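Fig. S4 source data, part A: sequence.
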Amino acid sequence: MRAIKFALAALLGLTAISALAQAPSLLDPATGARPGHTPGVGDSLPKSDKASNILPGPTASTLAPTLPSPANADGAAPFDLLRAARAALVAGQTGLAQQSLEMAETRSLDRAMAPGQSGTASDSRFVGQIRDARRALGNGDSAAAITMIDQALAI
């Protein structure tokens, strides 16, 4: 009788494991988003406070993590975002620095363009300094990134 109960318990355990192995994924197969999350709206996972996925090439993940945003980022001028990036680098907060640099670069790209020219890279020295600071950060060289930020702030 004891052997039958043991066998029955083992059979039920194997059935439960099999059922769990076939559980549907919690991610939307079309977007990769978790249920209830609209891609591009609000915070998404994974989150990180470390700079990543800046340069092309091997990365730890194919998903770029959500980075912390600088304080008062809404409506901040590029120079304010560069100051935030510099302060973040000095404090060792590379994720915040990356986000601040990306936002500063994006806001610096406002310029008049002829129709059909939108794919042309900016030749602005200011934008180039920000781009160089991002690349230095992507290479793990915070000191060089700070130097590039200082040069951009001096323009």
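Fig. S4 source data, part B ends here. Residues 19-23 have pLDDT under 50 and may be disordered.
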